[in-house]
Amino acid sequence: MELVCTDLLLCYMKTPLHLINPNDENQFLSTSTVYLGVKVLNQIKISAIQQRKDLLKEFSNRFINFIKTSCLQINKRYDFSNTILPLVNMLTPSVALSSKMREKYPPITCLSEQLHRIVNGDSNIQKLDDQRRTIVLVRLPNEIQTEKESDKCWTLIKELGTGKFIDLAEFALAVLSLPHSNASCERVFSKINCIKTKSRNKLITSTVSATVITSECLKKNNLNCICFQPTKLMFDSVSYTSLYPSSVTNKNELNTNKTMININEEEEIFLLED
């Protein structure tokens, strides 16, 4: 996002980037030098358009206002002075699994010491540092070496049979789950408002949570409530004992008897009481 914001600012401003204020009109480029993109530049070369200098000027001014508003909104939502976010790059597969790239970043302690809720204590931090130094010396499976997505890569490392780098993998996954803005939280709140309406105001927290998770899993696999096909095992699990467990006499047996149902052919698992 920092790169996007910088690119937008360079379209219409000439100040050094670290001193840029998107509202400072004294630092704006002239309308004739504003970068509009290749297609727009080619389009305005048409003679009929070139004759309307007033419209070209108005178009450039509107473009600048649009870019300025975009940059201001980005600055509101992202803290580019945050010291943690730049350090997260050290957890990308291309950096974490390369001894040459790793030398360009500080020790992992610089990141772990700022995240006390994820890792605490010198012994735990030392474990992370040892595993980060060792992981580049071990020949990992080709599946891990070729994986470019950070979350998938660290999940594969966590699931290694040796468990040698499990602390580092769990730390990396926890850090990668940190929201860089409140946008993801706001999306969840909006979804909950659609689920827990006035007519459904007695839904308990576990039901709302399960509904949100189910919706996210379906969306992840390009499914929806129309095309999703429940399995027979799912239908069988929606029984009187699972819907109304309080009316069942043997509650202890009910708590221990759980059925794992895979809602797709991949990895999403839901626990439903049978």
UniProtKB/TrEMBL annotation:
> From which domain of life does this come?
Eukaryota
What InterPro entries does the annotation carry? HATC_C_dom, RNaseH-like_sf
Give every HAT C-terminal dimerisation domain span: 164-214
Q: Which Pfam families match?
A: Dimer_Tnp_hAT
One GO MF term: protein dimerization activity
The UniProt entry, under SUPFAM superfamilies, shows: Ribonuclease H-like
Specify the protein name: HAT C-terminal dimerisation domain-containing protein
Its ancestry begins with:
Eukaryota, Metazoa, Ecdysozoa, Arthropoda, Hexapoda
